[in-house]
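stage 2 :: seqdesign
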């Protein structure tokens, strides 16, 4: 996954880079509760492998590691699906009676709401840990 980042600070072989976070729904949504309201993600990475001379204020191409991105994608799509399916399965096995389908459907919707908050907390913790590993590709 390629992004464009701006060099904020250089200290030896390490650079502090800000990358604007891209979201599919647009920018600055007032009613949205996700982390895409954050203007940029700031991280520190090694720039010793970059061929071009890089200075503060330059824009560079940033590449994220595929394994880490695939892990995040699996969590972001897999957790709600797994939670919803397990909720439906559990409610179908526990409940008896004519309304068990409606109750399990409503419970699965609540499980999606719970997964939203779990993913929101997961996203914030991953951003604090700087779990995404970025490499600088080239100067733009």
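stage 2 :: out
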């Amino acid at each position: 996954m390629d992004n464009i980042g701006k060099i904020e600070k250089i200290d030896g072989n390490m650079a502090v880079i800000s990358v604007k976070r891209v979201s599919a729904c647009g920018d600055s949504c007032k009613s949205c509760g996700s982390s895409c309201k954050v203007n940029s993600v700031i991280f520190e990475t090694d720039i010793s492998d970059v061929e071009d001379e890089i200075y503060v204020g330059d824009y560079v191409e940033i590449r994220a590691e595929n394994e880490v991105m695939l892990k995040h994608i699996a969590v972001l799509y897999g957790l709600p699906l797994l939670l919803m399916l397990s909720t439906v399965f559990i409610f179908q096995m526990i409940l008896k009676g004519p309304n068990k389908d409606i109750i399990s459907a409503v419970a699965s919707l609540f499980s999606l709401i719970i997964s939203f908050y779990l993913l929101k907390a997961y996203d914030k913790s991953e951003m604090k840990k700087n779990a995404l590993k970025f490499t600088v590709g080239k100067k733009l």
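stage 3 :: structure notes
- The CA atoms of residues 49 and 136 lie 8 Å apart.
- Residues 2-139 form one domain.
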